[in-house]
Amino acid sequence: MHVPDGFINAPVSVATGAVAAAAVAVSLRGARRELAGAGAGQGVGAGAERTAPLAGLVAAFIFAVQMLNFPVAAGTSGHLLGGALAAILVGPYTGVLCVSVVLLMQGVLFADGGLTALGVNITDMAIVTTVVAYAVFRLLVKVLPRRRSSVTAASFVAALVSVPAAAIAFTGIYALGGTAEVPIGKVFAAMVGVHVLIGIGEAVITALTVGAVIAVRPDLVYGARGLARPLELRTSPLAPEGAGTPVPAAAAAPAAPRRSVRPVWLAGVAAALVCAGGLSYYASASPDGLEKVAHDQGIDAKTRDHATKDSPLADYSVKDIADPRLAGGLAGVIGVGATLAVGTGVFVVVRRRRNAVPARNAGPAAEGTGNA
Q: Ranges for the PDGLE domain (predicted)?
């Protein structure tokens, strides 16, 4: 659903750019809390050193899986948008940043999604999908039984709903600033119709990924936080009066040693490299939902060439390499590495800024104590 240059006029492109910038700014503040473990019953900074690399991994994984276009109807394909997956795995604010990083890397390196349309793409594919998916997910988790399977089921429905929601959002944006005279009713029907089918693929990928992670490390899934009730130790009924108050197990026994996230991180990187470097060769070559609708409805009448169309990685293929499998696979590997590096770097900076706030706030108090 990457919108190219020329679909949306300049005023609306600027407006969506402002919306995207504001949402990213808000997400940076929210991501500081999510990456620091706040809001999940953890102290600020608890486990924070492992969250930034995992968030960068989620961005790289979304980039890789987006290369795997799957057929959904005659002559049409779809691919993961990733908002639901990111929100459930690392949190909604961090999820917006993950998808935004992916869109930025795709636009700059691979000429996928117009640079003047970056605000449109972030608004549609990062903000709308993440907000809608996480709202649906939280609603379902509240009403479903407190089980791991409920998290997986909720992730399926949330992802399914998020894709047609993004199609509706695009239709609204096009109604405001479309550059071609096309009946909006036809655009709406075509976009929603095909993206409901794409949403099924999105839901399957999201549920399988969330289910796989939650099966081995539920503590790493943001959407599963608080799933299990804290263990309480109760004293015997024969104990003296006042000794029968339940005591949280965490207070009665030393904390268990923290499990390493390295195996999960390595497995995630390996999966991303396999998807982008190998499986992408077998992806559907049919146009995706937006491309198909744009061609059929005439939305693409004023499409402009991408500013980085001459990039050595344009169209997810390394130029000057004759073998298409090698050229595409190498481009995918480069994309995974670049997205992982940029994403992790962004989240490390965000996390450190969060950790620096308590230290700055504690400074004057500490100095006052020393002068007393």
A: 263-352
